[in-house]
Amino acid sequence: MYITFNYYPEGKRKALTMSYDDGQIHDRRLVDVFNKYGIKGTFHLNSGKFDTEPFLNSSEIGDLFKGHEISAHSLNHPFLTMVPSDVMIEEILEDRRRLEDLAGYPVRGMSYPFGNYNEDLVKALPFLGVEYSRTVQSHGGFRLPDNFLTWHPTCHHDQNLLDQCKKFKNTSEWDQMPLFYVWGHSFEFERNNNWELIEEFCKMVSLDENVWYATNIEIMDYIKAMKNLRFSVDRKMIFNPSSIPVWIAVDGQPVKIESGQRIAL
Ligand SMILES: [Zn+2]
C-alpha cells in the first residue's frame, strides 16, 4: 500500500483560481462572466477608495462578491515598503476591518499593491492576520507556492492566456496537483477592449470534471489541511485534525478523510 498526495477536493487532480485587484466598477462585469461559467475568483480590494470614481460602492460589495472571496489590497494602495511601519500596519489592518464589515467573514488574504514587497513586509503579515499574499511575478507554470506569503501566479491574463489554458488542459497525470493561477485587473479588459478574451478563457476552462474551481483562500486552506494530516509511525492510521475534508491517494485511488476523522488503512 502506498500513499500519495495528489488530489484536490472530490478527488480532482487540478485547480484553477483567479485573482483580480483594485475593486474598480468593471469587477461587476467580470463577476458576471465568472458566474456564467462557474469560475471562482478572489477580489483584492482597496476599501479606502470605495464610493469614489471609478471604484465600487461599499454598499454593493457583499452581494457582488457572493461565492467569491473578498481579500485585502491595502486601504489606499501605497507602496507598502515605502511608508512608515505604523502606516503600513494601518493600511493593512484597517483595510481588513472595513472589508470584514462588508463581507461578514474574517478577511485573511492579500495581494501586494504594485506587487511591491520586501522581507520586512512579508514577516509582518502573520502579525496582521494575513495568511497569504499574491505577487505579480508570473512563473508560467502550474506549481503550488513554496510560501503562501509570496504567492507567485501562473500568468497575467495578457500573458498568452489561451495558450496557457491549452497547456493546463494537457498536463500529464504525473504532474502533482497542478494549479492554474491567473491575475489581473478588470479595468484592463475595458481599457484594451478585450472582454472577449476572458469570456473565451472562462468558456474554455469551465465544466471540466478534473478541475476544482476555487478562490485563493480555498486553495490555501486545502493545501494546509493536507499538510496537517497526522500519520501513525507505521503509516496505517491517519487523523485529519483540520476543519475541512482532505482527499489522499491510497494505491492510486482517492480516499476522503473527513474533518476530525481518524481512519485505519
Ligand atoms: Zn493594485
What does this structure look like?
The chain is globular, with a radius of gyration of 19 Å. The chain has 2 domains: about 10-225, TIM Barrel (Alpha-Beta Barrel); about 230-265, no CATH class. Strand 12 and strand 13 form a beta hairpin. The chain has helices at about 25-35, 60-65, 85-105, 120-125, 160-170, 185-190, 195-205, 215-225; strands spanning about 5, 15-20, 40-45, 70, 110, 130-135, 155, 180-185, 210-215, 230, 235-240, 245-250, 255, 260-265. With about 260 residues, the chain is α/β, with parallel strands linked by helices. Strands 2, 3, 4, 7, 8 and 9 form a 6-stranded parallel β-sheet that branches. Strands 1-12-13 form a 3-stranded antiparallel β-sheet. A 3-stranded antiparallel β-sheet has the order 10-11-14, with no helix packed on it. It binds zinc ion. Zinc ion binds next to loops.
List keywords for this structure.
single chain, 265 residues, alpha/beta, TIM Barrel, 2 domains, six-stranded parallel sheet, three-stranded antiparallel sheet, 8 helices, 29% helix, 20% strand, globular, binds zinc ion
Second rung of CATH, namely the architecture of the largest domain:
Alpha-Beta Barrel
Structural classification: alpha/beta
* Overall pLDDT level: 97
Helix content: 25-40%
The CATH topology of the largest domain is what?
Answer: TIM Barrel
**CATH homologous superfamily caption of the largest domain:** Glycoside hydrolase/deacetylase
Assign an overall shape.
Answer: globular
How is the main sheet built?
6 strands, parallel
Name the beta content range.
15-25%
* Count of alpha and pi helical runs: 8
Strand-and-helix sequence, N→C? EEHEHEHEHEEHEHHEHEEEEE
Class of the largest domain, according to the CATH hierarchy? Alpha Beta
